[in-house]
Amino acid sequence: MRRASVTTSLKSALLDYQYENGRRYQGYGKEKYFLPADETEADRLDLVSHMLNLCTGGKLHFAPIGDNPQRILDLGTGTGIWAIDMGDQYPSADVLGNDLADNQPRNVPPNVRFEIDDIEQEWIYSEGFDYIHMRMMGGALKDWPKLLRQAFKFTKPGGWVEFMDFTMTFNKASPSGHFERGCPVDKWTVELKDLMHGIGLDPEPGPKLLGWFKDTGFTNINQKTFHIPVGTWPKDKTMKEIGTINAIQFMENLEGFTLRPLTMKGWKREEIMVFIADVRKDFKNSKLQMQHDGYAVWAQKPLD
């Protein structure tokens, strides 16, 4: 359990929301996260969760955590869907999800609970976890090696840690695709990545996960990479569904992705909206045939 005084003080600070451009943002540390923390963003996270289930073939995890894990920690839990599903799948486990935003449901399985927390601060837990999980935190963290060190510290000997993350950069998926560097959607990712690098955030941690796990001292390190299409262009039924969901979650939330970062870079709202209109056209254009990459890495803490 965490100390009540620490949690209460932090919760008070985190719930001091800011409102910009008609969206609600986390008040704690303005540069902590560039995405909103409101119902629209919660809907997007639920959509992405479904997409990731398709990407993994319905697997909630790749790490071999056994049939009866006791303590599971979900970092940056978002709307809590993964934590809730894990609670249902593993009734033996006490599942704890934490996040900066208070976006989780109240009606959850009895073995699932949530807390508001900043995982980049020092962790305070009285006992370790059998399994620590995190996904989709690109652009949210400043010190990934420190996070891995804390995860290592609070994993029980023989326990597992699994992170999944992505690249923001889109690439042409096939020779027949029309995607080109410098097109509006490519410029969009360049602008967002530039802003995040400028304030010390890592927008594309996926390709670096394997190295960070090795440097931290984990063993039995595994990596799975996969391509994530954007749009309806794939012929395979499942990949088409993944690509369609991916395009929708980008298109319907372009303002949420873009307004705060480009405003911070000095863009005027009118300029941003014109730019977003061009980016949306690219997302709708199935002839671009673009994709980005995902990385899942899971590893074990040594027994000794």
Automatic annotation (TrEMBL):
<protein>
    <submittedName>
        <fullName>S-adenosyl-L-methionine-dependent methyltransferase</fullName>
    </submittedName>
</protein>
<dbReference type="GO" id="GO:0008168">
    <property type="term" value="F:methyltransferase activity"/>
</dbReference>
<keyword id="KW-0489">Methyltransferase</keyword>
<dbReference type="Pfam" id="PF13489">
    <property type="entry name" value="Methyltransf_23"/>
</dbReference>
<keyword id="KW-0808">Transferase</keyword>
<dbReference type="GO" id="GO:0032259">
    <property type="term" value="P:methylation"/>
</dbReference>
<dbReference type="InterPro" id="IPR029063">
    <property type="entry name" value="SAM-dependent_MTases_sf"/>
</dbReference>
